[in-house]
Amino acid sequence: MRVIGVDPGLRRTGWGVVDVAGTRVRHVANGICVSEGAALAARLLSLYRQLEAVVARHAPETAAVEQTFVNKDAAGTLKLGQARAIALLVPAAAGLPVAEYAPNAVKKCVVGVGHADKDQVAHMVALQLPGAKFAGADAADALAIALCHAHHARSADRLAAAIARSDG
Description:
The protein is an alpha/beta fold and 168 residues long. 53% of the residues lie in helices and 21% in strands. The protein has one domain (2-167): Nucleotidyltransferase, domain 5, CATH 3.30.420.10.
């Protein structure tokens, strides 16, 4: 299974792709889509086109996107939500199932604690994907989201197999 993780942002949207085979996870690629243009619509369009090219190039089978957290700046939260919509729309338009994970759930899955800082997340991602070079912190976060989804998908597969065994 090939998974793309997306860490949405209006200025910088991180992405990371991993291949999952049983318990093995292999780094495929990662990067950052940097929005271009002065107007909000132009910036969103540039993110859309860049992420669309990433999905076309790496052909993931499923996607995972980090949920938006609400902060004190309502306008900033709204803009982040618009970038997140692009992160959901691109894989959905490609026909991929899209999962969503809260930031604390991603940190808990990858680091073991829900309030880990960015450096701790990047360190644990590097341990799980040896040799991977990150395009930046946003790309490392996107790989963490992909790893979280891979973990949840493996758990769901194990549960489905156990249920099938008990029914048979």
